[in-house]
Amino acid sequence: MTATPDSATPPAAHRVIEPLYAEILRRNQGEKEFHQAVREVLETLGPVLTQRPEFVDARIIERICEPERQLIFRVPWSDDSGDIHVNRGFRVEFSSSLGPYKGGLRFHPSVNLGIVKFLGFEQIFKNALTGMPIGGGKGGSDFDPKGRSDAEIMRFCQSFMTELHRHLGEYTDVPAGDIGVGGREIGYLFGQYKRITNRYESGVLTGKGLGWGGALVRTEATGYGCVLFTAEMLRSQGDSLDGRRIAVSGSGNVAIYAIEKAQQLGATVVTCSDSDGYVVDEKGIDLALLKEIKEAGRGRVSEYAERRPEAVFVPGTGVWNVPCDVALPCATQNELHEADALTLVRNGVKAVAEGANMPTTPEAVRVFQEAGVAFAPGKAANAGGVATSALEMQQNASRDSWTFAHTEERLAQIMRHIHDSCYTTAERYGSPGNYVVGANIAGFELVADAMLAQGLI
């Protein structure tokens, strides 16, 4: 596999990118998700490397693609029967050029080093786009919380934090939640950190409970932000979400609050999904029922159809067969394939925004772009979560707490800033309307300029 720079990539930049990508493949063998994330960025950087040769001379790309630190550690724990289990923990501290490492922890059986590196690499540019002083990192474990008791999850989190705590700090590395890590897990992790360090360093983790340092809107932020970015994309075309039909994949935190914000803006959301299948509700998703099933009961979306006669549950994949004006993939990486994209285009989709991290394959992205569909990559569209985490850090640092309305307005301002930055950067570099180019170059320039200023480190 070779890098395939955009057709507008100047030959001189092409000569830099191709051998660089080949070397990344050689040094990071078997890490396919990381390869995909790096390639997606490299394909768009030709114009900026041509206009800013100092980035090439300082080997900025090589340095960005190599994490500052990679941690892999053993996590032993015992279940309720007294049986011992051993999982693997990860933390990849990718870039601190703009601030302390910032990025979530994912607990899921699929977690491996390549996935953590892909997530951390994306986080560098996502965090830069927010305009907040935060670097990029990511972590997690191949531990599966599904079906485990609260006591088992507590013991796992305590063991995980016993090792990880030595690498964290509000000025060093600040994790948050991700798939499999919600308020319960953050509570157990924070408690163990506090116990070991003997200090109440509330800024060391974000996504905390509201009564002990958490921020309003943090729960809603990723889903809200994705929809707010989508609204800005449509606004730039003289359109809006009002009256639009939306298909959402997933039924976790991001999907639920993307549905909520889309409904607030006048759209009708007709789908949600989980690993068992998807639901179609032509009258619009009953959000109260979905929250009851997924947030309170930790159930499956099939139960939604059992309890709502208007809805139909379809086992397996295929949510993108449902016609829609806007598609919001909010489940997991590489869930929307080329065939799905072709189906969405045939059905008249107007905009696609990634609520999850890299849920759209490169082939599918190409289909959308060639069809003239507005497409927002996750590093821009789902940056609302980490932006609000940074707002939580601000409140912790000042021993303050803000109202929901104030925090939501700050989130809206940040998402508008991200959209406008992507939009104008794409125009400046000759790719008007291409949010992938805009997001990658805008984020890259911010990080690269900081790296130049800080010397060869």
Question: How many runs of DSSP E, i.e. beta strands?
Answer: 13
Mean pLDDT: 95
Overall 3D form: globular
Tally of separate helices = 18
| Major sheet: arrangement of strands | 1-2-4-3-5
Helical content band:
40-55%
β-sheet strand percentage = 15-25%
Measured on Cα atoms, how large is the radius of gyration? Answer: 21 Å
**What summary fits the major beta sheet?**
5 strands, mixed
What structural class do you assign from the helix and strand content?
Answer: alpha/beta
- What is the terminal separation in angstroms? 30 Å
Low-pLDDT segments = 1-5
Topology:
Blueprint: H1 11-27, H2 32-42, H3 46-51, H4 53-57, H5 60-65, E1 69-78, E2 84-95, E3 101-107, H6 113-129, E4 136-141, H7 150-164, E5 173-177, H8 183-197, H9 221-236, E6 245-249, H10 253-264, E7 268-269, E8 271-274, E9 277-281, H11 287-296, H12 301-307, E10 311-315, E11 326-329, H13 338-346, E12 351-353, H14 362-370, E13 374-376, H15 378-381, H16 384-397, H17 404-428, H18 435-454
Parallel strand pairs: 3-4, 3-5, 6-7, 6-11, 11-12, 12-13
Antiparallel strand pairs: 1-2, 2-4, 8-9, 9-10
Helix pairs in contact: 1-2, 2-6, 6-18, 7-8, 9-10, 9-16, 9-17, 10-11, 13-14, 16-17, 17-18
